[in-house]
Request: fold
Amino acid sequence: MSAHPCEEQRMLERFMWISITASLFVIALKAYAAYVTGSVGFLSDALESLANVAAAMVGLWALKLSAKPADKNHNFGHAKAEYFAAQVEGSLILVASVAIIYTAVQRLINPQPVEQLGIGLLFSVVATLINLGVGAMLVRAGRRHRSSTLVADGKHLLTDVWTTVGVIVGMALVWMTGWQVLDPIVAILVGANILYTGYKLLREAIQGLLSETLPEEEVATAQEFLDNYAKDNGVAFTSLRTTAYGRQRLINVVMQVPGGWTVSHSHEHADNVEEGLAAALGSAETIVHIEPLGIKTTTGPITA
Reply:
């Protein structure tokens, strides 16, 4: 059974607080690593983690806003605020990547030696393990509760993991070979990777705002339920349309019923369809439009 909406909301907010707390601790570790070594690679890693904190705070605000009920000016609620948070997170990542690349290019032009790499590497490894655990937890929770904010924040942390791994490898090579030029080169590669991550997050958020249809497996689940219901009850379904509205699934479908059915009897079946789709998908808000059997619709039959 899915959690009660209020309980689920509190749970999601707790996850965001975990993300914020973990990111603050990771920033301290990475900033110290950058300070003691003077490495622009470690500095670029710390800058990305700073963006993590800002993004997580925006995500927490978006979660709180998305939970507000519908009102006079927002008849369908505020659930799409989560897409806004994902856009902000993607934008912050893009800004961080530009800052990282700029700093690295300056260091490439004016190279400086790095020191005490052993201590810096140790602190970065600890920070990586923290981000790995928290990021994986956020992605799992976000997918389970259909929260784009949690998924985006978790993916950001997991990207930070690979960023730090790249920095650690680069700094280890500097330590072993003495090639100081590897430091800014690693930072530039890190910045490019972060740039791509920011682009992907922005693209996904925009797709959500454009009311993209539900995933194929969920549409197939809805169609299977409708096919079975039609076969058992002598009705037909057409014009299935689906989309996500934040964490909520929205479904619109036409149900064609025998012409002799009363309005009350047709409405009873519409209620059954709404309840059945919600059960099949875990949760869903469905609008059923009723027409007489045999009416041709302009949008055609349902497709998976």
Observations:
- Strands lie at 236-245, 248-257, 285-292.
- The mean pLDDT is 80.
- The chain has two domains: 5-210, 216-292.
